[in-house]
Write a structure and sequence with these properties.
The complex is a heterodimer of chains A (322) and B (553).
Chain A (H helix, E strand, L loop, with lengths): L17 H21 L3 E2 L1 H4 L1 E7 L6 H8 L7 E6 L9 E6 L10 H14 L4 E8 L1 H29 L2 H25 L2 E2 L1 H31 L5 H33 L5 H29 L23
Parallel strand pairs in A: 1-6
Antiparallel strand pairs in A: 2-4, 2-5, 3-4
Chain B lengths: L5 H18 L5 H15 L5 H7 L12 E2 L1 H4 L1 E8 L2 H20 L2 H4 L2 E4 L6 E5 L5 H9 L16 E6 L2 E6 L1 H25 L6 E5 L3 E7 L4 H8 L5 E10 L10 E5 L7 E5 L4 E2 L3 E8 L5 E7 L1 H13 L5 E5 L2 E4 L11 E5 L4 H13 L6 E9 L1 H54 L3 E2 L1 H30 L4 H33 L3 H35 L7
Parallel strand pairs in B: 1-19
Antiparallel strand pairs in B: 2-8, 2-18, 3-4, 4-6, 5-6, 7-8, 9-11, 9-12, 9-15, 10-11, 13-14, 14-17, 15-16
Helix pairs in contact in B: 1-12, 2-3, 12-13, 12-15, 13-14, 13-15, 14-15
The chains are: A alpha+beta (322), B alpha+beta (553).
């Protein structure tokens, strides 16, 4: 008895409703960009500068009382959020966040002491297991490093795929990648999940994962292109995706199993991070089939892989309207 | 493809065994850690019977390198500070002044009288009374310049001398500034290290970052505030001549004088001679003490040069007040009663006992050459860290078991081969992390969990390929061989692209992100090794033994 998630000899026509899937992807990207500009991201202190203090108390958290206790300190923009963790129902934790004080880099000892004192006068059982403070100078650099990292990763991968395949594959892979990143950012904007350095790491993992998936499909396409010289590109792509579908589903599932257990059991500290990766695995799997391959179909691809380019054979392209 | 040469077989097994061997100490983390601490103590010559017995708690022939736990797992404080290196330039120019003065005085006949005026941007300005001779004066001062003594600064001089009308402007050259910065940073690091060490914390990391930054990480310390108070202030101690006491905070001061607030009395200020009589460099010792009224104080001792200067000064200035200045605040301004010759004294002020203890540590360790400005800090309490370890470990185990079950259900015996490879893979990740003394952070644990999920990918690729080949009615051996052969390029391409992302994260990332990139990167390399070599070896052994007519996968 074998558990088989994808039946043998499966033949799904993935390009049956290209308009619909492509349209949905484009629409989702447009909405994401719209959200990014009008709803913004809930940027963490890594990128904005400021201070976060985690509190942990014996008695339940009263967000309003916390906020009014901090009001007289005149810290500018203060947010207080309660932290929930399904595995720890008796957790009375909250996160206090305030902006970088003008003229300061990291928060001074005095400011942090004042905040602690104000909260302790409210509830003397409060402890402060985590304090983080980032000055505007460092946060500016972190933003820059994050953007550089994402761009460098995309660039390096573009180059690698171009080296190993053909430029059309490269464009397809990058389109899928941009699609995944844009929509992930859109989701973060929509749900207002805290966007910090760890999320950048998650984004880059999505880059890696999405490509991983795309490359496996492309590898099969390359192989089939050599084998079936007469088959229509559309059928050939369909065949390749179907052949690798079982693997795609298996790998996505094992990865998702691991990530979901981390999401549920790994504690609230890395929730956002793991959420981004779960989302990335789902969208990365979708995009390698519906975005990367569709683009490849539209761009067409060189068919004579065995012959060297002697100038006569030239690069043949499949029908653009295929 | 399924035949392995004997050397290859041995090599694979050696790697696997080494993997388990080097990963093992992490299974006994607390025990090995205490043994490592004890061995460290022994090396430092501290060999009490207790420590010797503690050190023998782990066999010496076994590896004892451990994965470092990041601050987010172990608890502790992290600070990123900038050293205000430019503050040293001013002190450098002050040190130049006597030399410049002497050189110019010799030329009095041509350039006339000289007067030092307050400079800007840490330069030294001297006004002469005969502006027509300014070029000559510049030449005289330029002759004082010394070559810069660093490799990068070879060939350049330490000062640049220019002039505006009747004023000579002397400033440090760029090469000298770079050399000075390096010295300032080295000194700052050394002094921070001494102060942190004196406070008795364990395994601090104190590193220079970039041109003027210091990263300080101290595991186990309660909070970043505590760490800041240990590192403390610059602790720059100087003695100055008092010109006048005033309550006017805007009191106009003359050239080469400064106005500083009193530490103990609100609204009281002192006008002081800017050039100190002596400074903290002459200090040989400082200890917490009490004054005659039993108030906390710090007693100090000066070296012979300091004692001589101080003795001479006090003899010449009996009856006048002098100020003890600590970090730009006048801690006290006693009147000199008599000639003080012994070179020791006591600093009284508004101190608590804790403060005098910290202050004497800071004075003993030496003053920081420049102020520190904190750019980033974080504290993680030990309980939260332990919670994260527990949660991470549980998530890892559950993910691991779930993947193992899923793989066995999907691929049967081959799934079990893949599972063995997966276990070896996790051992290898820990082994590599231990050997390179990498740091495991919470995102790092996430990286391992992700690797557990993704590591099976290479095997899945191969197994799916074998299934396909079997459909084409090939014999099992041939199918397996072709499966490996044809899945190879997909495995390599897929893993290299992920590896590229991991390497870029490692290069551009900081802190926790780096921890994630390290485990992800190591995980990719080890998973390719286990998938391509280990599972294949297992399958080949199985085929040799059973010689199955048909296989189910």
């Amino acid at each position: 008895m074998r558990l088989k998630l994808v039946p043998d000899n499966i033949k799904i026509n993935f390009f049956q409703s290209t308009r619909l899937t492509f349209g949905a992807s484009v629409l989702a990207m447009v909405i994401s960009i719209f959200l990014f500009f009008f709803n913004g991201l809930n940027l963490g202190i890594d990128f904005l500068g400021g201070t976060t203090i985690r509190t942990d108390a014996q008695t339940s958290v009263d967000v309003g009382a916390y906020r009014s206790a901090l009001k007289p300190l005149d810290l500018g923009d203060v947010t207080v959020t309660e932290i929930f963790d399904v595995t720890k129902p008796d957790l009375n934790a909250a996160q206090i966040r305030f902006e970088a004080q003008s003229g300061e880099e990291a928060a001074t000892v005095e400011v942090i002491r004042a905040v602690k004192a104000a909260l302790l006068s409210l509830d003397e059982t409060i402890t402060f297991p985590q304090v983080e403070s980032v000055g505007p100078e460092v946060s500016g650099e972190l933003v820059q490093a994050a953007i550089t990292a994402v761009l460098a990763a995309i660039g390096a991968v573009l180059f690698y795929i171009w080296l190993r395949f053909e430029w059309q594959f490269s464009v397809g892979a990058i389109a899928a990648l941009v699609h995944d990143i844009v929509i992930t950012i859109g989701i973060f904007s929509l749900l207002q999940i805290k966007f910090d350095l760890a999320i950048i790491a998650a984004l880059l993992t999505i880059v890696g994962y999405s490509l991983n998936d795309t490359v496996v499909v492309f590898d099969r396409v390359r192989e089939n292109l050599r084998k079936y010289k007469k088959t229509l590109l559309k059928d050939l792509l369909n065949m390749s995706i179907n052949e690798t579908l079982s693997r795609t589903v298996m790998t996505s599932l094992t990865t998702l199993i691991a990530l979901i257990s981390l999401f549920i059991l790994g504690g609230d500290v890395i929730h956002g991070f793991v959420f981004a990766m779960i989302w990335g695995v789902i969208i990365g799997t979708y995009s390698s089939v519906f975005v990367a391959s569709s683009i490849l179909l539209r761009l067409g691809v060189k068919r004579d892989w065995d012959k060297t380019n002697d100038g006569k054979a030239g690069t043949q392209f499949a029908g653009i309207d295929a | 493809m399924l035949q392995f040469s004997l050397t290859k077989k041995i090599l694979i097994w050696v790697v696997v065994v080494l993997g388990f061997l080097f990963a093992m100490p992490n299974g006994f983390y607390n025990r090995v850690e205490s043994v490592n601490d004890a061995r460290m103590q022994l090396e430092n010559g501290n060999d009490t019977p207790e420590i010797i017995s503690q050190a023998s708690n782990w066999p010496s022939f076994l590896p004892s390198a451990l994965v470092n736990l990041g601050l987010d797992l172990r608890g502790g404080a992290h600070l990123l500070a900038r050293v205000r290196v430019d503050q040293v330039y001013e002190a450098r120019m002050d040190a130049y002044w006597p030399e410049v003065r002497n050189a110019l005085r010799k030329e009095r006949a041509s350039i006339g009288t000289i007067r030092r005026i307050d400079g800007e941007n840490y330069d030294l300005r001297v006004r002469i009374s005969e502006p027509s001779q300014i070029n000559h004066a510049v030449e005289v001062v330029s002759a004082l310049a010394r070559p810069v003594t660093t490799l990068s600064g070879a060939g350049s001089r330490d000062i640049v001398v220019t002039s505006i009308e009747d004023t000579i402007i002397i400033e440090l050259s760029e090469a000298e500034k770079i050399a000075t910065d390096t010295r300032t940073m080295d000194q700052s690091l050394e002094i921070i290290r001494r102060r942190v060490d004196e406070a008795g914390t364990r395994e601090p990391t104190i590193q220079r970052q970039g041109t003027d930054r210091v990263l300080i990480q101290v595991p186990g310390i309660g909070s970043a505030e505590e760490l800041k108070s240990i590192i403390g202030k610059t602790a720059k101690l100087t003695f100055h001549k008092v010109i006048q006491r005033t309550s006017n905070s805007d009191e106009r001061v003359k050239n080469r004088q400064i106005l500083l607030p009193a530490q103990d009395e609100e609204g009281v200020f002192y006008v002081l001679e800017k050039t100190p009589v002596i400074n903290g460099d002459h200090l040989t010792d400082a200890q917490p003490a009490f004054d005659q009224n039993n108030r906390p104080a710090v007693s100090f001792r000066l070296n012979t040069t300091g004692a001589r200067i101080f003795g001479q000064y006090t003899a010449e200035n009996i009856g006048t007040p002098f100020a003890i200045v600590l970090d730009q605040e006048v801690v006290s301004a006693p009147t000199i009663q008599s000639h003080i010759s012994g070179g020791s004294g006591i600093i009284t002020g508004q101190f608590g006992v804790e403060e005098t203890t910290l202050l004497s540590i800071q004075l003993r360790a030496g003053a920081l050459p420049a102020e520190l400005e904190y750019l980033q800090e974080s504290t993680v309490g030990p309980d939260l860290g332990q919670d994260s370890i527990d949660a991470g470990t549980l998530a890892c185990i559950v993910a691991f078991i779930a993947v193992l079950v899923f793989m066995s259900l999907s691929y049967g015996l081959f799934g079990i081969f893949a599972n063995v490879a997966l276990i070896i893979n996790v051992a290898l990740i820990f082994a590599v992390l231990s050997v390179i003394s990498g740091t495991l952070t919470l995102p790092g644990i996430a990286g391992i969990v992700l690797t557990v999920g993704m590591a099976v990918d290479a095997n899945v690729l191969v197994f799916e390929r074998i299934r396909e080949e079997l459909k084409k009615a090939k014999n099992p051996r041939k199918a397996i061989e072709l499966g490996y052969e044809r899945a190879f390029s997909a495995i390599i391409d897929a893993n290299i692209t992920t590896l590229i992302a991991a390497v870029i994260l490692l290069v551009f990332g900081s802190g926790p992100v780096k921890g994630f990139a390290i485990t992800l990167g190591i995980g990719i390399v080890t998973s390719v090794f286990t998938a391509i070599w280990v599972t294949r070896l297992l399958i080949s052994i199985w085929i040799e033994r059973k010689r199955p007519k048909s296989i189910e996968i």
